[in-house]
Design brief:
about 110 residues; alpha+beta; 2 domains; 4-stranded mixed beta sheet; 4 strands
C-alpha cells in the first residue's frame, strides 16, 4: 500500500490536490475527444473543388466571377467547373476574383 501522511490536515491537502488533478485530466480528455471528433468530420467532408464559378441572381443567369475552389470570397450561387472551363470563362471576359486570383493560377492574363 502507498504511504500516506497520518494526520488529517495533510490528508485533506492531498485530497484537494488530487481533485484538482482529476479536473485537469477530465478537461484534457474532453479536449482530446473534441479533436478526435473534428478529425473524423474532416475525413468525411468532401474535398474542395479546384475551380468554381459564381453565378448571377435568377435562374439561367450568366456567370459573374471565377474563383479558386477554396476561396472565402465566393458567394453562395456557384457551380463547380474544371480547369479548362475556368480558363475559357476567363478568356471570354468573365471577371477573376481579386482575392484568390484564379487568372494567375491558370496563367491567363486578363
Amino acid at each position: 500500500m502507498y504511504e500516506l501522511p497520518p494526520d488529517l490536515p495533510r490528508l485533506r491537502t492531498l485530497e484537494q490536490q488530487l481533485t484538482i488533478w482529476i479536473g485537469h485530466v477530465r478537461a484534457a480528455i474532453t479536449a482530446a475527444e473534441q479533436q478526435e471528433l473534428e478529425r473524423r468530420r474532416a475525413k468525411r467532408r468532401p474535398p474542395a473543388p479546384d475551380w468554381i464559378v459564381e453565378l448571377g441572381i435568377g435562374q439561367g443567369s450568366p456567370p459573374t466571377e471565377v474563383h479558386v475552389g477554396h476561396c472565402h470570397a465566393a458567394g453562395k450561387r456557384r457551380r463547380v467547373i474544371d480547369r479548362d472551363q475556368a480558363r475559357a470563362l476567363l478568356t471570354d471576359g468573365i471577371r477573376a476574383c481579386t482575392h484568390c486570383r484564379p487568372d494567375t493560377s491558370l496563367g491567363v492574363l486578363g
